Amino acid sequence: MSHGEPKRHHVVIVGSGFGGLFAARALKRADVDVTIISKVTHHLFQPLLYQVATGVLSTGEVAPATREILSRQRNVQVLLGNVTDIDLDQKLVVATTPMGLITKSYDSLIIAAGANQSYFGNEAFSEHAPGLKSIDDALELRGRIFGAFEMAELVDDPAVVEQLLTFVVVGAGPTGVEMAGQIAELSRRTLRKDFRHIDPRMARILLVDAAPTVLGGFGDRLSSYAERQLIKIGVEVKLNAAVVGVDAEGVDLRMANGEIERIESICKMWAAGVSGSPLGRLIAERSGAEIDRVGRVKVEPDCSIAGHSNVFVVGDLMALDNLPGVAQVAMQGGRHVAKLIKKRAKGKDVSADFEYWDKGSMATISRFRAVASVGRLRFSGFFAWILWLVIHLLYLIGFKNRITTLLHWVVSFFGRGRSERAGTVQQVLGRTALKRIQTDEWNLPNTKKD
Amino acid sequence: MSHGEPKRHHVVIVGSGFGGLFAARALKRADVDVTIISKVTHHLFQPLLYQVATGVLSTGEVAPATREILSRQRNVQVLLGNVTDIDLDQKLVVATTPMGLITKSYDSLIIAAGANQSYFGNEAFSEHAPGLKSIDDALELRGRIFGAFEMAELVDDPAVVEQLLTFVVVGAGPTGVEMAGQIAELSRRTLRKDFRHIDPRMARILLVDAAPTVLGGFGDRLSSYAERQLIKIGVEVKLNAAVVGVDAEGVDLRMANGEIERIESICKMWAAGVSGSPLGRLIAERSGAEIDRVGRVKVEPDCSIAGHSNVFVVGDLMALDNLPGVAQVAMQGGRHVAKLIKKRAKGKDVSADFEYWDKGSMATISRFRAVASVGRLRFSGFFAWILWLVIHLLYLIGFKNRITTLLHWVVSFFGRGRSERAGTVQQVLGRTALKRIQTDEWNLPNTKKD
Q1: Which listed residue (B140, B178, B227, B420) is catalytic?
Q2: A159: which DSSP letter?
Q3: Among A125, B3, B359, B360, which has the highest number of CB atoms less than 10 A from its own CB?
Q4: Residue A103 belongs to what H/E stretch?
Q5: Do A411 and B400 touch (CB under 8 A)?
Q6: In this predicted model, what pLDDT tens digit does every residue of B26-72 receive, in sequence order?
């Protein structure tokens, strides 16, 4: 089925992340119609997703509805759909939707489908060590983290308690550092007085990476500062340690000396690598474009695909000048191609290279401690943390989300609280790592299943 | 397995709802040890659950962690477990937990296991018309309600759009009235500008009940006021209409004249009846206590079970003097039995009848409109709404939840926003009524499953 095709220049955007959303917004005053097709109904503010996974923020705060954000931009329609094929000759996009297949024709196409977690060929690890890429992931991890403490409270065997209270975070980039820091805070502060049988402060939190430093991209000074701070708040940092095995009961590490070290751990998480959305391979097949080692599509300097000047790839799925997969690259890329399209819709045959303005990067380690790298400047400690806080608040979408987020931060930084800990029965039981019982068994016969 | 048994008088509480939580709190200064065993890790503030189902509040705001609420009360331990058996002679409680069976001995037992939705023998209806009893239910309904609008935006066939935009709420008690009112608000205000293909204001919201009035227990004046207000905000009120069929595509009603009316509707919800937790039947079997028509346990005037003065049933599972299944009965019942236990733990052989103080009842209809019945007084309109607002804020657990809830209310009552709309892929797709596609099909091959 298809809706009446618009007569104006029609821009189809695949994805509602930073790339897709910022492209759509930049087309506000353009003489075009825009259709966003996304697999999810929200725009995910990925940089704060780890705070959902650790109970600080609610899902709504980091994932406002895309159609609500764009409700006043009348030239944009938002559709729930999973793009499964693209016909570059016919200029058609095909998507699976809850109501069947839809086909949309486009004049310009922006592919901003992002990246998934990568397990470097060991996809079987994903069941035991979920990544942190979606709201689904964050709620799954939240259920596992809080669930591990709940389960530990129930057992007497010290070895099992230890296994349940050992958390392994794989990957010492910003997401891994932030997750490890948050789990340390949870166990040392938030949950300190919540249990009677276990002492949550005994939790072991391991941050593991095959590389020799944490936060590799931040430079030596910030890397070693971050490592020191992590150790100070109780995180065991294991570097030069490659993960060679992940199963339900633990993780195997190959250390620098070649020896295998086994860590018994129920709750693992993966923040080690990404690979471009499968849509990247599809577009490469259809267009002959190259894809790089991690599945990203190599684009021309203006972000278009070779031979298809009206088809663009932006954000985490784009391979250009080794730009990193961060929000700023996606936002600026989205805005760049929107500007090109806007001019072309007016009949101007323009082209312009994408010039990325690196505003810097930052990562929090604990409350009051962060690192930030801005141009040649390096900040660490409290000042960097304030910088982190202000910038993230500013970039959050929507006034009300800023207010409630700030409030939740005040509560969790200055108090002990984590307000957003409520899990569904399914989250707490159905998918916890041990899977000793199933959700269905949780109810007595004759009760309604959840 | 069992932990070292406490030497002090041991009170086991089954359930962390109003009955269980208020009993535990009232035992704060008692010379007893308390163990709460609950199927969920949170205390659910049921009266505001419909606001989670309609995107106003986050799960954390209505469901703080039970162990966090009680963290400073050192004589309480909270355990995640589903009580499956009770041995009244041995004074033992058996529970399934994620870590296997546990057995707890008790000196006093408080059963506050609540009630489930009842479909009056038509349990098959539950798949198509979920109830609203748990966080799982609320998220399921939220996914279905917002999902129906998402799906309608994707189709051209006017009959399908109409079916998707027809919402049927079964049961015109407070929960049904509040849900119908909220869906009306959603369609008329919140979502008004969010879509391009459909007009959300065309949504039909039906409130159906076999009884001749809405809010039956509130008296004629408030009933007719509520009905008028509902009609005013766009709800179709169908009274004297018994639901005789519910399937994936709609609902069959038997009207007063005996005719069957078919309503084509994808999104249905059930707020028509409750039945006591299956634990009620179990305790009745074990003790010889009677259970009433809706599965509640008939108790002695002091809330204990005949022949077992140390075993109490409180809250929605308790049948005594026709008291209704509302929060106040559970809170006061919990406190009453806690007082008895506290005195008995001191060696006093006391007994006292439970005297319920009816503080009144209230229900919101729309923003700025509510009804309240307090003693002989009847309030309706704006004043009743302010009363509702203040009382619900006061009873919410925790200062921070009061603040963020108030903020979300300001946003949704004075603005248009619903901040908490973010659904997981599973919620938006996997369990929507149509089930045209499955979650697993949402990803292209080789992508990680959520």
Answers
A1: B178
A2: H
A3: A125
A4: strand A100-105
A5: yes
A6: 999 999 999 999 999 999 999 999 999 999 899 998 999 999 999 99
